[in-house]
Design a protein that fits this description.
The complex is a heterodimer of chains A (278) and B (915). By secondary structure, chain A is an alpha+beta fold. Helix content of chain A is 30%, strand content 26%. Chain A is globular, with a radius of gyration of 19 Å. With 915 residues, chain B is α+β, with helices and mostly antiparallel strands. Chain B has 24 helices and 33 strands. Classes of the chains: A alpha+beta (278), B alpha+beta (915).
């Protein structure tokens, strides 16, 4: 039973390798999960690791440190392709949650309703997992394996999110559907990243969350939209192209409602992305 | 490895001072601040980041202290409200503006709100409404409806120009108890226990219906050093039952062998605080055997359903009935008729302060300090459970962080009282969020069938009403709901031919009890939305239809009660007329161009009888004059945020004829305040207000008699003197020649008021209440057709309060009630076992409540103090039906199942033809 405040990543990795421990950064999912149960394990706090904090340019794209908070992302100077991620950041819990909650925590918690995941899917993000054995990278879609289930091994720490270069003219959007204004778990949410060239959709990526155990890309729909004139888009988004959703019924909405609402939220997220897109 | 991490000591700057603590690994910062550093201004509402009450600044950024490990604060700057108000100019400005706008009601969310607002004001000294909403969106408030909080933050830096309102009756005086709510010093239930108090935790059933047997409790206790005692049913020296209504005292303190709802208590473990915090209650030796569960009314009334109580046949606990004329004949003769059915859901009170308190023995007497709405009833219950004389029990209410009806019933009081009696030591207890949501009372879900007829000229012709109310496992206030509903289900209208029947049905659900309106909000949904359907059939304007049938002076109610004065519903409806006409025009214009969103306007009326239904309901208020010239008011009417600590003194001061500023306020405390009854049924301003008025008048006449002055003489309290002025002649009373009584008063007055009522006969005919209050709400909504989302855009609320003792307090009640009504209409649905937290159970946030315009009408009531009527419950009754009527106006969609969640509203839209 101890609390380890890591001052270097190496320390954190060795502490984790030494035995079972929980890794915390923002703590915004860890504490609620504890409820009123007494914790008597080991905690490794990685929130003070400067190398895990912040958004930076790399030679191949962008790197977001694992312990970067949602507020850091909101405040970061980023191109319009990140607008969806920034809008999602503003919808994570509340200002209080955004001030400490981190992007990697949102991924590791692996909630189907994690607001950060759809925009990261549209950004083709990969996660970097580190351990004393080294590091490995994988797409988010491979990392997230199910409800509360990820590919992270017990001795690994998610250390960064990598985003490959994006076309300069691409624009992101994010639309969240919830039953109240703030502090609300999504009924469903959609992120879109669209690139327009000469009035045509040269690329479009659509990610949807809370409509299946793991957020997913709408690839059939993307394929149908790619290459079309922008003006045609609203009419092409038809329900038969919205495939692969397996929404559940819960206290927030029925499965039927989610299925129907998804197509509307997708249309709105596309429209939002097109506003101001080149 | 970080060297400092190897040591357990954590050091940070707290409100400008470096502090050191020794927290457990991963201890919540909120816990360290409260329990190790005595920073009780940091409030805990949920321990999950769902309510924001514990917001503190860490290096200037607002964070939930419940979601941060204390170790994470190492080396950082932590600021709490109590520290901020001492030095921070933004916090000091907020202190003034929160008081000026009455932005704090109960005050439990206020630290979180103000701390969040400080962070905003540092970045943006002149914020907009939208910026305030974004910055404060993470803090929940259940009392205010948020609009006054927005006003207070937007106007914070206008604070130095704020002129304090006069304090006399009729003016928007600041709350007399307002300062502690904004400087962090208010003491709520969890803030008062002495250091070292033992902690009690309750073993609760995980099953809604079960039998159970204990294993070897003594052996289990022996394995857990630090546990002082374990209490079960056999440790209850008196009656192992509590309740609120004679004949219905049916809820065991500890279940004996059978469980009737999930969360029911079977045992209570008491021990050292650290031991109790680390204790795994799952190891407690109890075996459960799950049994058939009756989850709802339909389950419970099937012919072969098991009985929750053998003597309550068909699981029907009781019923209510009111009949006048011949409803069926009138309906047969009607030219138009509407028949409809409705369902509503369990609604959780959702106060941000979980039940908390402590008990101790003082000089052989039991003292209980806890949050409560009803100190007198708490004492009666404990006397019965403990088999102790009432005189040996003292109830000292703490500040109450929201009640809304649920804190009328006892919750933890029997546990901490028993534990203290058994151990002889102080024992504290605080309910966890899931515990309060599991085990305390809820609003009754209702299933209602209604038929309403009218003549072609719009005159109502018959109304029949049948309502079944899911009263849960135990009686609580279920009988009151059953009695109140048939009296009120007509709405404030003239209906000569009427029949209303209600039943309270037992299920294996949490006890449904008192919640702002006692069943009337549910019945109003049915009656007021059916009215709009009927008006449409008649081709009449909904407002004109209501005006045509509204009660007036001299017209009998459905109980045959005739008021010859004071009936204010027409005044409310007429006050809405301009807004109604304008909104209809605006909505029509919007709808011509918008396809995806449609706007509509809805209205609904309400009436509500103040005080107990046809039962005695006295309040007593005492006041005294000390030899030093100060006047002391013993004010026992519990202020749970609604403002009785302000309203009662305003009434008393007016009656005494003095300025309020010098008054000393005492109470509530059963040792020093006479019983002013419970804070419920919108009765305090009316009933306790009348007692205060009488006490003020009596003390005044005593003073004037001493001065040989006539009734119109002026009394002034200044510099320790009582000055009496009459016709230019001024004299100071010589208080030294008067003997002080045992309480230290040279003059004293104690007066009781009990509203004049008469019992109802078998047809519900009689005088159920001495007065009613009246209301009508108007709301404009915008419906997102594809997604089934309803967004209220603005409210206009007309309330006849008889006389506004404090107009700003009236607005505060109205706005807070509308917020709860909006929640009930659109998002609040408690599902036992599934929504026992504040992220699955949604209450409105600061972004969900639109601007609210309050129109205060003053149709004086002869029974009210200075004409005043009660208000606390009237404020949410019309809200939900007004919203549903607005949705119907916007879209043609009929909402018949509350709340209108996106799923339900979308289904209703589809049924109305919106593909």
């Amino acid at each position: 039973m101890s609390y380890i405040t890591a001052t270097t990543l190496e320390d954190a990795l060795y502490a984790l390798a030494a035995g079972p421990a929980s890794v915390i950064a923002g703590g915004t999912d860890w504490f609620p999960a504890q409820g009123d149960h007494h914790f008597d394990g080991t905690l490794i706090d990685i929130s003070r690791l400067a190398e895990l904090r912040g958004v930076s340019r790399t030679d191949k794209g962008w790197r977001i440190g694992a312990a970067t908070t949602w507020t850091d992302i909101i405040k970061a100077d980023l191109p319009a392709a990140f607008d969806g991620l920034k809008l999602a950041a503003r919808e994570v819990g509340s200002v209080q949650i955004q001030n400490t909650g981190t992007i990697a925590g949102n991924l590791c918690n692996a909630s189907p309703a994690a607001d950060g995941v759809p925009p990261l899917l549209t950004l083709n993000a990969t996660v970097e997992l580190s351990s004393t054995d080294g590091t490995r990278q994988m797409p988010i879609s491979a990392f997230l394996q199910g409800v509360r289930k990820t590919d992270r091994a017990a001795h690994e720490i998610l250390t960064a999110i990598h985003i490959p270069d994006l076309p300069a003219e691409s624009k992101g959007s994010f639309v969240k559907l919830g039953a109240r204004k703030y502090l609300v778990i999504s009924i469903c949410m959609v992120a879109v990243l669209v690139t327009i060239e000469a009035g045509l959709v040269s690329d479009i990526r659509i990610g949807i969350g809370a409509a299946s155990p793991v957020a997913q890309r709408m690839t059939a729909l993307e394929d149908a939209l790619r290459g079309l004139p922008v003006t045609d888009l609203p009419d092409v988004v038809t329900d038969d192209l919205i495939l692969g959703l397996t929404p559940i019924s819960d206290v927030r909405a029925s499965a039927d409602y989610r299925q129907t609402a998804a197509s509307h939220v997708i249309r709105r997220a596309i429209a939002q992305a097109l506003e101001g897109a080149a | 490895m970080d060297k400092s991490a190897a040591t357990a000591i954590t050091s940070f700057t707290l409100n400008g001072t470096i502090v050191q603590v020794d927290p457990a690994p991963g201890e919540r910062l909120s816990h360290s601040l409260r329990e190790r550093l005595d920073r009780k201004d940091v409030k805990i509402g949920c321990n999950a980041g769902d309510c924001g009450a514990c917001t503190v600044l860490v290096d200037g950024a607002p964070v939930c202290a419940c979601l941060m490990a204390t170790q994470q604060a190492t080396g950082r700057k932590v600021e709490t409200l109590a520290g901020l108000v001492k030095a921070d100019p933004d916090a000091q400005a907020l202190m003034e503006s929160f008081q000026h706008h009455q932005a704090a009601q109960c005050g439990i969310c206020t630290p979180g709100m103000m701390v969040s607002a400080v962070a905003l004001l540092r970045a943006e000294p002149q914020p907009t409404d939208a910026q305030v909403q974004d910055a404060l969106g993470g803090v929940l408030c259940r009392c205010t409806g948020y609009r006054k909080i927005i006003d207070a933050v937007v106007g914070a830096h206008a604070a130095d120009q704020m002129v304090k309102a006069p304090t006399e009756l009729g003016h928007s005086a600041r709350r007399f108890d307002g300062l502690p709510k904004v400087d962090g010093s208010e003491k709520f239930g969890d803030d008062v226990a002495p250091a070292g108090a033992l902690v009690a935790r309750v073993i609760r059933s995980p099953y809604p219906s079960a039998s159970f047997t204990f294993g070897d409790i003594a052996a289990w206790q022996a394995q857990h050093p630090g546990i002082e005692t374990v209490l079960t049913a056999k440790d209850v020296p008196g009656l192992n039952a509590f309740g609120v209504i004679p004949g219905f005292i049916d809820q065991p303190v500890f279940a004996v062998s059978h469980i009737r709802f999930r969360g029911e208590a079977v045992a209570c473990v008491v021990g050292d605080a650290d031991v109790m915090a680390a204790l795994d209650l799952g190891s407690f030796p109890v075996e459960w055997t799950s049994q058939i569960t009756l989850s709802d009314i339909d389950d419970a009334i099937t012919h072969d359903a098991p009985l929750l109580f053998d003597d309550r046949k068909g699981n029907i606990m009781c019923g209510g009935f009111v009949k006048c004329g011949d409803a069926d004949a009138a309906l047969d003769a009607a030219d138009a008729m509407v028949e409809a059915t409705y369902k509503t859901s369990f609604v959780e009170h959702g106060y941000i302060e979980p039940e908390a308190g402590f008990a101790e023995m003082v000089g052989g007497r039991l003292h209980v300090h806890a949050c409560t709405q009803a100190p007198g009833m708490d004492r009666e219950t404990l006397a019965s459970v403990l088999n102790m004389p009432m005189a040996d029990i003292r109830i000292v209410p703490t500040a109450v962080g929201g009640g809304f009806g649920s804190k009328i019933d006892v919750s933890l009081q029997p546990f901490i009282a028993l534990a203290t009696l058994k151990t002889g030591k102080p024992v504290r207890m605080t309910y966890a969020r899931n515990e309060t949501m599991q085990s305390t009372t809820k609003r009754h879900p209702a299933q209602i069938s209604i038929r309403i007829g009218a003549k072609s000229d719009g005159t109502l012709s018959g109304l029949s009403f049948d309502g079944d109310f899911n009263t849960g496992a135990y009686a609580s206030w279920g009988p009151t709901v059953a009695n109140r509903v048939p009296v009120h289900a007509s709405g404030p209208y003239r209906i000569p031919d009427y029949r209303a029947r209600s039943r309270a049905v037992h299920t294996h659900c949490p006890p449904a009890g008192a919640f702002r309106g006692f069943g009337v909000p549910q019945s109003a949904i049915a009656q007021e939305t059916a009215f709009d359907l009927l008006a449409e059939k008649l081709g009449m304007d909904p407002l004109a239809f209501r005006l045509k049938n509204a009660l007036t002076d001299g017209v009998p109610t459905v109980c045959g009660q005739v008021f010859d004065q004071g009936v204010g519903i027409k005044a409310c409806l007429e006050a809405l007329q301009p807004a109604w006409e304008a909104a209809k025009t605006d909505c029509a214009a919007f709808n011509t161009t918008s396809r995806t969103h449609k706007r509509g306007v809805g209205i609904a009326s309400a009436w509500y009888g103040c005080g107990n239904t046809s039962l005695p309901n006295p309040s007593t208020i005492k006041a005294g004059l000390r030899a030093d010239g100060t006047v002391v008011l013993h004010q026992g009417a519990m202020d749970i945020g609604q403002g009785s600590n302000t309203v009662i003194p305003q009434i008393f001061a007016k009656a005494l004829g003095v300025s309020i500023d010098g008054l000393i306020l005492l109470g509530a405390d059963t040792d020093i305040t006479p019983d002013a009854g419970k804070t419920s049924a919108s009765r305090q301003t009316f009933v306790s207000g009348n007692a205060a008025l009488k006490a003020g008048e009596t003390l005044r006449s005593e003073i004037l008699r001493q001065a040989n002055a006539g009734p119109d003489a002026r009394i002034t309290l200044e510099s320790g003197q009582v000055i009496v002025t009459e016709a230019g002649r001024t004299q100071a009373l010589d208080l030294s020649r008067l003997d002080a009584n045992t309480e230290g008063y040279v003059l004293m007055a104690q007066e009781t008021y009990d509203p004049p009522i008469k019992p109802l006969d078998e047809n519900g005919q009689g005088i159920p209440y001495a007065q009613f209050g009246y209301a009508a709400h108007l709301v404009v909504v915008e419906v997102d057709i594809a997604l089934g989302l309803c967004k209220p855009l603005r409210f206009v609320a007309a309330h006849d309060v008889g006389r506004a003792i404090n107009p700003l307090l009236v607005e505060g009640q109205v706005q807070g009630g509308i917020a709860q009504g909006l929640g009930m209409a659109l998002m609040e649905e408690y599902i036992p076992g599934r929504t026992e937290n504040l992220h699955d159970y949604l209450i409105p946030t600061i972004g969900d409540i639109p601007p609210i315009e309050t129109l205060i009408l003053e149709v004086a009531d002869a029974h009210g103090p200075y004409g005043a009527k009660g208000l606390g419950e009237h404020v949410l009754i019309p809200t939900a039906p007004a919203i549903f009527n607005a949705i119907y106006h916007a879209t043609g969609a009929k909402v018949t199942h509350a709340p209108a969640t996106p799923t339900r509203l979308r289904a209703a839209l589809k049924e109305a033809g919106h593909a």
